[in-house]
Amino acid sequence: MQPRQPTPLDDYLFDLRGYLVLENAVEPELLDALNQAFDAFPPLKRGEWWGNAQRRDYTDDTGFELHNCVEAGEPFERLIDHPSWIQYMRHYCGEEDSYVQGLFIDECIASKRKSGGHHPVHSGGYRGALRGRYLYEHGVFRCGQCNILVALTDIGPGDGPTMVVPGSHKSNFPHPLAGDYARGDRMDDLVGAIPAYLKKGDALLFVDGLMHGGSSRTNPEGERRVVIYRYGVSWGATRYGYQYSQALLDRLTPERRKILQPVPPNRPPSA
User: Which secondary structure element, helix H or strand E, spans residue 197, and what is its range?
Assistant: First the structure.
């Protein structure tokens, strides 16, 4: 695949809404490989490790969430610099045209959610952390973190689609009805929120400062499967302190390794 490039319309809509939908972002062969990888996940308990990946569900309701999933098999490695979105990430959150230009993957999560599950409402521009901040200044984007959410299954009504509040990444006020993340408040009926329906293989790209969350999955059959990669500035660090195994780093292409390890360790020569 030839790398997709952000267009002036993409820039306009990303600035206006805080998100883009990239249709047919992932090729069928890779989708099949990713779903086969999901099928092979062991029945981990919350907090349990599988190699260098860990089940770390955000809340009791968010479902099975395998963090550091880039360590879970070769199909996940192909997502590191996937041509459908890597140029977007370099443009929006890669410190373009600066002395620290480059990317880093903050988090990568394989998520599956069955009926009843949801992810509470969170983020938004009001008093947001610098890590997820949206900024456009002096003709360049300087976003702290941008996310790519890849749908491995169709995600329509009742499937628990991600919901977003368009424009909330630039809000100067708290949403008066947004509730509280710690309480697990749902965003299904939040005023101003809209569902981001995706076909299998589509991807949702959004700045982390956008108010978002996962609506309740009400369909009784099947499960919602997504992979989420969070990209940020090259000088960042993984949110939960995950470190990539040397075996993974050794087998990656130089381009992929530079995204996972943009600043290699600098040690004196061994005696």
Answer: none
Of the pLDDT bands very low, low, confident and very high (cuts 50, 70, 90), residue 271 is low
Q: Which fold has domain 8-260?
A: Jelly Rolls (2.60.120)
Both tokens of 116, joined, read 């009843």
Cβ(231)–Cβ(106) below 8 Å? yes
Task: For tokens 């947004």, name the residue.
Answer: 178
Closest CA to 41 of 106, 115, 111, 108: 111
Q: Are 54 and 231 in contact (CB under 8 A)?
A: no
CA 166 to chain centre: 17
Distance, in Å, from the CA atom of 198 to the CA atom of 149, rounded to the nearest integer, reads 10
Task: Report the percent of the chain where pLDDT is more than 90.
Answer: 82
DSSP codes, 2-46 = PPP---HHHHHHHHHHSEEEETT-S-HHHHHHHHHHHHT---PPT
3-state secondary structure of 172: coil
Q: What pLDDT score does 237 carry?
A: 87
Average pLDDT of every residue of the chain: 94
